[in-house]
Design a protein that fits this description.
Largest sheet: none
Distance between the termini: 32 Å
Structural class: mainly alpha
Length: 501
Amino acid sequence: MYASREDIGYDFGDDSKVGSKPVKPNSNIDGGWAWMIVLSSFLVHILIMGSQMALGILNMEWLEEFNQSRGLTAWVSSLSMGITLIVGPFIGLFISMCGCRKTAIIGGILNALGWILSAYASNVHYLFLTFGVTAGIGSGMVYLPAVVMVGQYFQKRRALAQGLSTTGTGFGAFLMTALLKYLCIEFGWRNAMFIQGAISLNLCVCGALMRPLSHKDIAKVLSHSAETIKSNGVLGEEPEKKEAATNEEVLDSVQHIEIGVKSRSERNMYGLRILKTVSQLTVTVRKGFAIWYSSYFGAASLFTNRVFVAFIIWALFAYSSFVIPFIHLPEIVKQYNLSSQNNIFPLTSIIAIVHIFGKVILGIISDLPCISTWNVFLMANFTLVTCILTLPLMQTYISLAVVCALIGFSSGYFSLMPVVTEDLVGTKHLANAYGIIICANGISALFGPPFAGWIYDITHKYDFSFYISGLLYMVGIIFLLIQPCIQKKQPREKSTEEAQV
């Protein structure tokens, strides 16, 4: 395992340029408006991730309403969860062109529209489109900016800030489970989804709070990130320099056109403004697409970082193990005849509440100077996979409650994912890199619950679902352990060959 963040770092830029001049502290970095960003991200996690963790309530309503198999019905929840994360790389393109604020506001409108349209569903397939796709895309357009903005505004206390903001998932799971259960009992599931759609419009307010940093502030964040990341020459700045030169040429041509038109006639000022706006928009789109493309497919590809690739493989297997309990625990409790005890204090609520403390505590521990964030991240993963594998063995409420509490605490490592990602690639590439990670998580969430439902339809038990998902999760953890060892050995092997020559 790693001893420091530098051991897993890669530099995706030129350290000599950004770190050569001392920078003055800014009140908005690690303080000031940064805490409003944390509040905004906290509310986003309540409204998006919290409500998705509470979909087990609606899943039971859909089973009774449409009389479809558990495997087919589970696709509604998994589509919403999966698409929220799968669209991450494409949302990175929106962020590059429009910024986090506009992207989040548009996403809030889409998410609310998806909930409201789902209230009129006549079958499960209708929910695939309205709730799974529409609300899922809208959620993704809000979720990624909420994570990225926290990373931009914090340097020294990133793990704590991400921990505090992502505790919204735990609060949201607890609150939304109670809210949706109450609304379904009092008004029916259709009206409950309509009301939830109206509540989701608050995501637009959260997006409005995401005030972008100035270019000077961003430069200061990048300078700090460059100092904490080890240089291995993986990426260069030549594609960005070429793109900048191309953009300057386009703007120069626009200015020449403007001067020529003014000299010929002053009557075409309105048309000139339109031309200038369109040209500037074209430049913005081209620049955003170039940055996005180079991060994924160009010379500056993130996939040249082998540890980051191992991180992606881990993400493909990890998230379903966390999602499956939330979707299927209500059914498991019903099978074990524990509904009376579970109604007093639901197991999903236990996961949600302890999940809150897990994120904050793991964030505080990770920010300690003598503690490696990466090691904390790995230990939490080991605990979680152990709980997933042992959960089917527990058939009493007390034993299930203990395992669920451990699942909630260890799953607090989610708050460390943006920090670990930033340590791997730097602040400059955080949006695109984290977009890839949550996309891999989304694929895991997309197929996990339907797979568990399909296994149940065959075996009439959920045991094998937990065993298989837990073993796949363990494979992902092994990838995280093996790849860094290979990465460390390579320079030593090279030096040995040179010594022999």
